[in-house]
Structures are given as structure tokens and as C-alpha cells.
Specification:
This protein is of the alpha/beta class. 38% of the residues lie in helices and 15% in strands. This is NAD(P)H-dependent oxidoreductase.
């Protein structure tokens, strides 16, 4: 199994990237990390992706590299900052560019990052209207990292910091469980497809 972590802040050296690196580097978050043969991190702001205009052949020079990593992944983590109560434009553009052949029936852990006490709205937004056609499956255990500048740093401090790390470990464990459970569904979907499957390729 392969895990893909996508951080979608439009700023380099962002707090979203810090969260992604924490997950990537801390392999002690067992048992989930032991079950992945590879964990990749994509920092979208490092790629020159165009705003998608609906044309499949107009996704930019870097998209084939990104699409390959998405297609190879068995589970995804999508990390977005909260800007004005919304998910990152980069995240929404990324999800528009993904095809269901790359993402369908794969579990996704959604993580919202906030410098304050908010962070709920991006999770709600993505679950409500960003997964209809790509058919990603958001697991119930999303994460909201509040006051992000003061957590997940080099040395854990305080009960809240420790509780957050333990909650992340649980959510990552559940993501791995969903990854294992959905893999056979994807295989059956490929080899034993539903009659007239293409008539229902878009969500309702």
C-alpha cells in the first residue's frame, strides 16, 4: 500500500507543509506507517499548475508526475489551510484536475489547518461539494489542527499537544484500515464492472 500526502497552501514553508512533514517523518505513528511500502508528500505550491479550464490536455507540464502519484496511492491525506472560512484554491483546483480513474474509491483523510480556533468550514466545504465526480471517499475521522503555530513542533509541550498527536495517530490508523478495506472494491470495480457503468460515472 502507498500513502500520498498533499499539502495545499499557496505559501512555501507553510504550516500545512509542517503538518505534512510531521506525518511523513514520524514513522513511529504505528501501526499505520508499517503497512505502507511508500509515503509521498506533494507540496502543490511547488508545481506550476494552471487553473483548470475543463480540458484534459491543458493541465500543465507537471500534471503527469502528480497524476501518477495519485493513481499509485491507496490512500490520500489532503491538508488545507483555512482562508476566509474556505478551503485552499489549490486544493479545489487539484480535485477538479483529478480524474476518477486516479481517485475513485480511495479513502481520504481531510485535515484543516487554522492559526486560530476555527478550521471547521474547509472540512464541511470539501465533504459537501468537492468529491462528487472524483469519487474519493472521505473517512469520518477528519482532523482540525487549531493554533497550528504552537503544536506539532520539535518538542511536544502540554496536554493539548500530546492529545492532538494521539488523535492524529488514531486517525492515521483508521485511514490505513479504510485503505485495506477499499482495495478489493477497486479491484472488483475494474474487473467486474456494473453494467452501463459509464452512464453513472458522475455523482448525482
Amino acid at each position: 500500500m502507498k500513502l500520498l500526502i498533499v499539502s495545499t497552501s499557496q505559501r512555501s514553508n507553510s504550516q500545512s507543509t509542517k503538518v505534512a512533514r510531521y506525518i511523513t517523518e514520524n514513522r513511529f505513528l504505528a501501526p499505520h506507517s508499517e503497512g505502507y511500502e511508500a509515503i509521498h508528500h506533494l507540496e502543490l505550491c511547488k508545481f506550476n499548475l494552471p487553473f483548470w479550464d475543463g480540458e484534459e490536455d491543458n493541465k500543465g507540464e507537471h500534471w503527469p508526475e502528480i497524476a501518477l502519484k495519485v493513481a499509485q496511492a491507496d490512500a490520500l491525506i489532503l491538508i488545507t489551510p483555512e482562508w476566509g472560512g474556505m478551503a485552499s484554491p489549490l486544493l479545489k483546483n487539484f480535485l477538479l484536475m483529478c480524474s476518477r480513474q486516479e481517485t475513485a474509491h480511495k479513502p481520504a483523510l481531510l485535515i484543516s489547518v487554522s492559526s486560530g480556533i476555527s478550521g471547521t468550514y474547509p472540512i464541511v466545504e470539501v465533504k459537501m461539494n468537492a468529491l462528487k465526480n472524483n469519487k474519493l471517499v472521505p473517512i469520518p475521522d477528519h482532523l482540525i489542527i487549531r493554533d497550528v503555530e504552537n503544536v506539532l513542533n520539535t518538542t511536544p509541550q502540554g496536554a493539548r499537544n500530546i492529545a492532538l498527536r494521539e488523535r492524529m495517530e488514531y486517525s492515521l490508523f483508521m485511514l490505513h484500515q479504510y485503505g485495506q478495506a477499499l482495495a478489493p472494491i477497486r479491484q472488483r470495480h475494474i474487473h467486474q464492472s456494473y453494467p452501463k457503468q459509464q452512464e453513472y460515472c458522475y455523482g448525482m
